[in-house]
Amino acid sequence: xxxESRPLLRVVRGNPDDTxxxxxxxxxxxxxxxxxxxxxxxxxxxxxxxxxxxxxxPGPGAWQFSGR
Length: 68
Known about the structure:
Order of helices and strands: HH
């Protein structure tokens, strides 16, 4: 049997109705269409990293350093 002539799903036990088969087909199709997970690390934004913030300097003119 070639892959094209084989059915996508085959019921081995039970007697599912049309609705149950439709739901099962939708779930299997969604899983097959999902992107394959690669083990590459996800690039994260460093925008809020604490290492990028300067320490607050209390005293005269401190408001100037709060925005830097």
